[in-house]
From TrEMBL:
Species this chain originates from: Ruania alba
Bilayer topology annotation: Multi-pass membrane protein
ABC transmembrane type-1 domain location: 108-308
Identification of the protein by name: Carbohydrate ABC transporter membrane protein 2, CUT1 family
Any Gene Ontology biological process: transmembrane transport
GO cellular component, one term: plasma membrane
Main location: membrane
Length: 325
């Protein structure tokens, strides 16, 4: 009787190499299965939706750019996305410069003053407040956080009347402070700063500095503030976006010579005969001049977004990670 070794050695060799099991992938990596029909349809709908959304956002901007190159008559007769001429832009610019003895430059200067002062005061108030709520423990901490969240959810227009009455009582109506002071109150900035200081910077760092003898102010200035560059950039950006386009409060609080650009655009539009028939023949202002002024008002916002997008995204990414953590 043959032994086990003789039976194994007497088996014929396999032809075609090693046998592949049903579960083992072939050489060269796993087999990539095709997408299911439902997945493909979902992707197609997603791409179509994104394309429509992009067109919805881009087409108005494209129309504005092209409309600035056409006169009022051309806007009514030519195709909406037809290009006019660069000479029309130069002519519209001359009319803007001549309107009310260069009022456009005054509006621009007022906007820079108001927005710059609001950003500075926002940072001065927001960063320490967020640090106190995020890194310190005190009795009224939770109620203050609840009030801050409530102010974030409250529409800005709901506070215009109380703010106006307050400025009347203080005698500040007609003064730039009547717009700067309310604009410096930024509940969203306080809450974002609170999240940053309470989650991104470890409490052990604060405690170690306090054990070493640092006062709370020294902990804030020497420890927290140098690490807060991302949130400072984020709050600065949001404050700029919020205050640059402010219309209602300056319109109510300020005199005509103190108006910023958004209110100036309304004044300019009221001087265009196509928009206000009562001004026919009084000013060399038309729809194309109003459109050009609108583009000039939007240009600083686009430039700030272009040059600060990396810093803003970095701060937003850090906050997003802190919220997920």
């Amino acid at each position: 009787m043959p032994t086990t070794e003789q039976r194994v050695s007497s088996r014929p060799p396999r032809v075609g190499g090693p046998r592949l099991s049903a579960s083992a992938p072939p050489e060269g990596g796993p087999v990539r299965q095709g997408l299911s029909i439902n997945t493909r349809v979902a992707r197609i709908f997603a791409w179509v939706g994104l394309l429509l959304w992009a067109l919805y956002a881009i087409l108005p901007m494209l129309w504005l750019l092209l409309a600035a190159t056409k006169s009022g008559t051309e806007l009514a007769t030519r195709p909406p996305f037809a290009f006019g001429s660069f000479s029309r832009i130069a002519e519209s610019w001359e009319h803007l410069v001549e309107f009310n003895n260069g009022a456009m430059f005054g509006w621009l200067g007022n906007t820079v003053i108001l927005t710059g002062a609001q950003i500075v005061l926002t940072l001065v108030a927001t960063i320490p407040a967020g640090y106190a709520l995020g890194a310190c423990q005190f009795r009224l901490r939770r109620p203050i956080l609840i009030v801050t969240l409530g102010l974030i959810l409250l529409p800005g227009g709901a506070l215009v009347l109380p703010q106006f009455l307050e400025m009347v009582a203080l005698g500040l109506v007609g003064n730039r402070l009547s717009v700067i002071l309310p604009g410096a109150v930024f509940p969203l900035g306080i809450y974002l700063t609170f999240i940053y200081f309470s989650t991104t910077i470890g409490k052990d760092i604060y405690d170690a500095a306090r054990v070493d003898g640092c006062t709370e102010w020294q902990v804030f200035v020497k420890i927290a503030l140098p690490l807060a560059a991302p949130i400072i950039a984020l709050v600065t950006f949001f404050s700029f976006m919020r205050n640059w386009g402010e219309f209602l409060l300056p319109y109510i609080m300020l005199n005509s010579d103190q108006f910023p650009l958004p209110v100036g655009l309304a004044v300019l539009a009221s001087a265009a005969p196509e928009l206000n028939p009562n001004t026919i023949g009084q000013f060399d202002i038309g729809v194309s001049e109003v459109i050009l002024a609108t583009l000039l008002t939007m240009a600083p916002v686009l430039l700030v977004l272009l040059f600060t997008q990396r810093t803003v995204l970095r701060g937003a990414t850090i906050l997003g990670g802190a919220l997920r953590g």
